[in-house]
TrEMBL record:
InterPro entries: EF_Hand_1_Ca_BS (IPR018247), GPCR_2 (IPR050332), GPCR_2-like_7TM (IPR017981), GPCR_2_diuretic_rcpt (IPR002001), GPCR_2_extracell_dom_sf (IPR036445), GPCR_2_extracellular_dom (IPR001879), GPCR_2_secretin-like (IPR000832). SMART domains: HormR (SM00008). Pfam families: 7tm_2, HRM. Keywords: Cell membrane, G-protein coupled receptor, Membrane, Receptor, Transducer, Transmembrane, Transmembrane helix. GO terms for cellular component: plasma membrane. GO terms for biological process: adenylate cyclase-modulating G protein-coupled receptor signaling pathway; cell surface receptor signaling pathway. The chain crosses the membrane at residues 150-173, 231-252, 264-283, 325-346. GO terms for molecular function: diuretic hormone receptor activity; G protein-coupled peptide receptor activity; peptide hormone binding. PANTHER family: DIURETIC HORMONE 44 RECEPTOR 1-RELATED (PTHR45620:SF15), PDF RECEPTOR-LIKE PROTEIN-RELATED (PTHR45620). PROSITE patterns: EF_HAND_1, G_PROTEIN_RECEP_F2_3, G_PROTEIN_RECEP_F2_4. It comes from Graphocephala atropunctata. Its main location: membrane. This is G-protein coupled receptors family 2 profile 2 domain-containing protein. Residues 49-132, 148-342 form the G-protein coupled receptors family 2 profile domain.
Length: 361
């Protein structure tokens, strides 16, 4: 009732630090309800506060939570939008920080309230600009995202150096040129390519985030690099599958291994991922809906920041390329089990012993 609403108070604690828990309390004369959550959950203190304000407004305007002619209060995964008259554009301050980057709250984000009392699917964050670097006399602290990126780049760089040396050895020395080593070389090449493309893609996205480029159209460069990166990740798994298949043919299917040449292995390693990627791109481009097609926070934020990059928004269509990864891993487990079984019998059967010796040739 209205009297209950007057006696209701809402208290929301500060944003919890890493490893700490936060409490949100709603109290009345009769009871106290405590919501306790960990920072790692998808729900945030700001969202809880928005929900409690909505609840308080619902009590005050019972039985109609939202007045006629208004869009209801709503949380868009970044900001809490208040009830707004229909056919108008709501303006509220930008978020103070996102991914460890501070933003100017004197600027406003906007969202259209349609004449039918529903919010527009997209929020305009184009005016939300990140603050420039700290003053020159103060040390600039790296955000967790930047630290993680530096560690990734350092690791990928060391990986590229080691892989480049291994590939050079396999290619330069003619005595090492055989089908087995060619398969090894292709697998290492997929890791080298995926490392390189990642180191090109991620800094570009970081630069756009640091510059406060939000709500802009997805650039052709970003979209192309991400598609290539997804393809190369697939080739990593398929060439690992080729490694397992080659050993299986060598040890278990000895008489059939001559039928599968390098061209067949290359078709599996490079061609199969291409077919999977084309299917994923076509199906996702056709059937991906608006930004609410996926309820996960990650998907909502990606769509809100880069509305034109619907292809990069995580949703259930991603199983089109994630499924084959899991499938080839399961097949490799089957291959490994078969090879270990054959080799376990090698001591008693001379023919099998000669096959298992080939594993170390």
């Amino acid at each position: 009732t209205a009297d209950d609403a007057k006696r209701t108070s809402v208290c929301v604690g500060p944003r919890p630090r890493s490893g700490h828990r936060a409490q949100v309390r709603w109290t009345s004369d009769a009871a106290m309800v405590t919501v306790d959550f960990n920072e790692t959950n998808l729900i945030s203190a700001e969202e809880i506060e928005c929900m409690l304000i909505y609840h308080q407004e619902s009590l005050q305007s019972h039985p109609h939570p939202t007045p006629s002619g208004f869009c209801p209060r709503v949380w868009d995964y970044v900001l809490c939008w208040p009830p707004t008259p229909v056919a108008t554009v709501a303006h509220i301050p930008c978020f103070p920080d996102l991914n460890g980057i501070k933003y100017d709250t004197t600027k406003n984000a906007t969202r259209l309230c349609h004449s039918n009392g529903t919010w527009d699917d997209y929020t305009d964050f184009s005016a939300c600009a990140a603050f420039p670097a700290a003053e020159a006399n103060l040390p600039k602290l790296l955000s967790p995202v930047e630290i993680t990126t530096i560690l990734y780049i350092a690791g990928y760089t060391l990986s590229l150096i080691a892989l480049s040396a291994a590939v050079f050895i396999f290619v330069y020395f003619k005595d090492l040129r055989c089908l087995r080593n060619t398969i090894h070389t292709n697998l290492m090449a997929t890791f080298m390519l995926s490392d390189t493309v990642w180191m090109l893609t991620h800094p570009i996205q970081m630069y756009q985030s640091n510059e406060g480029i939000l709500g802009q159209e997805c650039t052709v460069t970003i979209l192309t690099l991400n598609i290539i990166l997804h393809y190369l990740y697939l080739t990593n798994f398929f060439w690992m599958f080729v490694e397992g298949l080659y050993l299986y043919m060598l040890v278990v299917k000895t008489f059939a291994r001559q039928n599968l040449k390098l061209r067949g292995y290359a078709t599996i390693g490079w061609g199969a991922p291409l077919i999977v990627m084309v299917a994923w791109i076509v199906i996702k481009s056709v059937f991906t809906n608006n930004i609410h097609s996926d309820g996960r926070l990650e998907a909502q934020l990606i769509s809100a920041m880069m509305p034109q990059c619907s292809l990069l928004t995580p949703d259930h269509y991603d199983w089109i390329y994630q499924g084959p990864m899991l499938f080839v891993l399961l097949l490799n487990i089957v291959f490994l089990s078969s090879i270990m079984w054959v080799c376990s019998l090698a001591d008693n059967i001379p023919v099998l012993s000669s096959r298992c010796t080939k594993c170390s040739d």
